[in-house]
Amino acid sequence: MTHFFRLALVAAFAVVAGCGGLLKSGAPPLQIYVLRPAAVEAPAAAPVPGVLAVPRPVAQPGLNSPRIALTRPGNRLDYFAGASWGASLPQVVGALATESLRSSGRFEIVAEAERSGGARYELQLTVRRFEAEYQDDGAAAPSARVEFECLLTTSAPRNVLGRCDGAAVVPASANRMSAIVQAMEQAAQQALAQVIERSAEAAARSAAG
């Protein structure tokens, strides 16, 4: 083995050892958070007949991501380090909306759009706000702000039956991730409760007419 080859081999091992060191990080592991639907009582009225389809929601720019968003004064958008939703926000909100609608009992059948052949209604959701809103750059706890823009339509032919927007603001109990996610879950549940109530009313008017 030549002297030059031995030097090259030693250098190669040094590079590999250096890469191994780079793979070791002192950063905390990524925490994955989920959102659960609120517990609801059975409705007094009979469910609206037919199938309601829930297409995947559309999200405002900056929100179409698994990252958990926060805003600061001056319309500055940022994300929490080391924390993430279990999927992209539109997927998370779509699953939450579907489960919330099912558990509400306000519609006879609720299904994801790709599994809802022959659906009578569609719920078109746009996520306008879904973030922890800080009022200053200090350590004070933020408020969770959730805003949904919503249209209830028929499937074929497509006609708009009514708006069913929902919005809520819930202060976090502390400036830590678990408390912030809990506030975001509560805000999402409250906003979706408004969406469900308004969409069920619009569908019932259509069915009666």
Question: Any overview of this molecule?
Answer:
With 209 residues, the chain is α/β, with parallel strands linked by helices. It has a single domain, classed as Rossmann fold (3-Layer(aba) Sandwich). Helices cover 33% and strands 33% of the residues. It has three helices and ten strands; from the N terminus they run H-E-E-E-E-E-H-E-E-E-E-E-H. Strands 1, 2, 3, 4, 5, 6, 7, 8, 9 and 10 form a ten-stranded mixed β-sheet that branches. A hairpin with a 5-residue loop joins strand 8 (143-154) and strand 9 (160-163). Helix 2 (89-104) crosses helix 3 (177-208). The radius of gyration is 24 Å and the shape is elongated.
Produce the secondary structure layout.
Blueprint lengths: L2 H21 L7 E3 L14 E7 L3 E2 L7 E6 L3 E10 L3 H16 L2 E6 L8 E13 L9 E12 L5 E4 L2 E6 L5 H32 L1
Parallel strand pairs: 1-5, 2-6, 2-7, 3-7, 4-7
Antiparallel strand pairs: 4-5, 7-8, 8-9, 8-10
N- to C-terminal distance: 91 Å
Question: What is the count of structural domains?
Answer: 1
Give me the count of strands.
10
Helix proportion: 25-40%
Low-confidence stretches: 1-24
Q: What kind of assembly state do the chains in view correspond to?
A: single chain
In CATH's first tier, which class applies?
Answer: Alpha Beta
Write the CATH homologous superfamily: ABC-type transport auxiliary lipoprotein component
CATH overall fold name: Rossmann fold
Structural class: alpha/beta
Q: Provide the CATH architecture.
A: 3-Layer(aba) Sandwich
Mean pLDDT: 86
Beta-strand fraction estimate: 25-35%
CA radius of gyration: 24 Å
Largest sheet: 10 strands, mixed
| 3D shape | elongated
Listing every helix as H and every strand as E from the N terminus to the C terminus, the arrangement reads HEEEEEHEEEEEH
With helices defined by DSSP (H or I, 4 residues minimum), what is the helix count?
A: 3
